[in-house]
Design brief:
- With 297 residues, the chain is α/β, with parallel strands linked by helices.
- The chain has a single domain, classed as Aldolase class I (TIM Barrel, Alpha-Beta Barrel).
- The protein contains eleven helices and eight strands.
- An eight-stranded mixed sheet has the order 1-2-3-4-5-6-7-8, with helices on both faces.
- The longest helix is centred in the middle third of the chain and has 15 residues.
């Protein structure tokens, strides 16, 4: 991490950030099934604030390729140390879990696997294939790492025509070197453009940013413009919440009115679908955004 901002702020949580606790049969069913199938979810690993709501709706974002990342981003709660070998049985178990949960739409993401020759692209392909073989009608969204910007790897995944190809820019250009371990702002923009050039209208392309990391409002607007210029269809903007005291310093809590202003700005720029509010995360209400972007609602 960058040495200037590494201790979490003790700023009091504002009322618009507080999440209503949910419990119930659906949430318990998801949790038990994930444990039984020996799967990982980004909901748990990234300490998502919406986990109770999403699991109660029988919605989860499956995280493939293990729970150990080869990068150590300053904002992220996922463990960063030597990853385990790729689990060849994981795609079938993901498909099995989706079938048992009765999902109509699923998001599949992964840790960064810079240790693999294909950066994990083939495992995404195999997971999409396994889900389609088991459940042909399920909508599939992938939230991928940058694959080191290699077009052939991006094409490998996009050519499977998921409903949505998502890759997050995460933050503004100025903060990227300090916050995103191994990430590059321009590289992420190129990933999005490459994906859209390959996908055309068959797949919606999506990206997201966090705010409250130290960016200015002007930098947020510039990031929105930069992302749109890649051809990206869907944008998410959410509040950064430090996972622990050892993560990047919280600079500010952004008020809901500002999120609404950015939403209107992004729509005027030309995005087909936008989700912008404090508790929005990459996969939050993913099916609704996908259908809006593709004209399916």
């Amino acid at each position: 991490m960058n040495g200037t901002l590494v201790k979490t702020s003790t700023k009091r949580l504002p009322p618009w950030i507080r999440v209503r606790v949910r419990d119930g049969k659906n949430r318990n069913k998801v949790q038990e099934l994930i444990k039984k199938e020996q799967l990982n979810t980004v909901c748990q690993s990234a300490k998502c604030p919406n986990i109770a709501e999403c699991w109660d709706r029988k919605s989860a974002t499956f995280m493939i390729l293990g729970d150990r990342c080869t990068r150590a981003c300053a904002f992220c709660a996922i463990h960063s140390f030597k990853p385990e070998p790729v689990d060849s049985g994981e795609p079938e178990r993901v498909a099995d879990a989706i079938a048992k949960l009765g999902l109509n739409y699923v998001v599949v993401t992964s840790v960064d696997r810079d240790d693999l020759p294909d950066k994990g692209a083939d495992h995404f392909v195999k997971t999409i294939q396994a889900v389609r073989n088991r459940l042909p009608g399920v909508g599939i969204e992938v939230l991928t790492p940058d694959f080191k910007g290699r077009p052939i790897l991006i094409k490998r995944v996009v050519s499977m025509t998921p409903r949505v190809f998502n890759h997050n820019v995460e933050t503004c250009e100025r903060l990227t070197p300090a916050i995103r371990s191994g990430g590059r702002y321009e590289r992420s923009l190129k990933v999005l453009k490459t994906a859209k050039d390959i996908a055309g209208d068959l797949t919606a392309v999506k990206s997201g940013i966090m705010v409250g990391l130290g960016e200015t409002n002007a930098e947020v607007e510039q990031s929105i413009i930069d992302i749109f210029n890649t051809g990206t269809d869907i944008l998410t903007i959410g509040q950064y919440l430090p996972p622990s005291s050892s993560h990047w310093l919280l600079d500010r809590y952004v008020e809901p009115e500002q999120f609404e202003s950015w939403s209107e700005f992004a729509k005027k720029v030309g995005f087909r679908a936008v989700a912008s509010s404090p508790l929005v995360r990459s996969s939050y209400r993913a099916e609704e955004l996908a259908n809006d972007a593709l004209g399916l609602n």
